[in-house]
Amino acid sequence: MLQGAIDSFIASLSTGENRSKRNTMMAYYNDLRQLSCYLEEQGVEEWSQVTGEHMARYLLALSERQAYRPATVARKFAAIRSFFRYSQRTGVITANPVEKVEAPHARKALPQALDAEQVASLFAQVSTETPIGLRDLAMLHLLYATGMRSSEIVALNVDDFDPVLAIVVCPDHKERERPGRVIPVPAVAVDVLLCYLTRVRPLLVRRIEERSLFLNRHGERLTRQGFWLIIKGYARQAGIIDITPHMLRHSFALHMLKSGMQLRSVQELLGHAHISTTQVYYRLSRTAARE
After folding, report:
1. What is the largest CA-CA distance in the chain?
2. Which end of the chain has less Cβ packing within 10 Å, N or C?
3. 116-290 CATH, one of 1.10.238.10, 1.10.443.10, 3.90.25.10, 3.30.70.2190
4. In angstroms, rounded to a whole number, what is the distance separating the alpha carbons of residues 176 and 170?
């Protein structure tokens, strides 16, 4: 009797507005078959007999007895929850047994950050004897000193940087028309940026109306892809193989927390909409401290 309701639910996923991909349907089917086998072992013959206690014990069994990862348990629970909502809607059950069961949370993996030695090595690869090297050094300093996204770095215009106030107005990474967040720039980064603006940018610019802060060899705005190829090149020279576009941003956040900055302030600098997004760096800082 348990199988019939599962077949009906899976069939509903392939019709109307709830049309799902084949792989999702197969995953849901396997998750529900696994649940039904467990319930049958417990002597349950009808879905209406399933209780919240049954479900709590099942989730515990997945985690402890079968050693599924939290993310896998959370995915299986999502399928089960959808099934019971459908079953209640179609009259198979009158009460939802997972309504008051706490959903398992998939613990996010901690972000990877560079340590101080790796950051120093990365900066050491940049030659300050060439105009392009000075440009790259300015970009690296700004990236590490502000925690900006690579897409935000290349979106900057000349007027977004104020050397007198030592700030950069970071444009909204979705819409430039929205007010940007104001980020302080350390003195060493201000000096390197001024060097780039006075000595290098005039050599690169081709059109007087060009307002982009960082330019490529053709005098045009540097693209995010071009920017990251530059960073990856220096990382490769420094022996940093697994670098990612956000790794320096992660390193900035971790450095700020280690220096005593409040989590809310780090959130504002990074431009996170929710404090929960920034809290992962607090976990990372505690892990690093323990190690």
Report:
1. 80
2. C
3. 1.10.443.10
4. 9
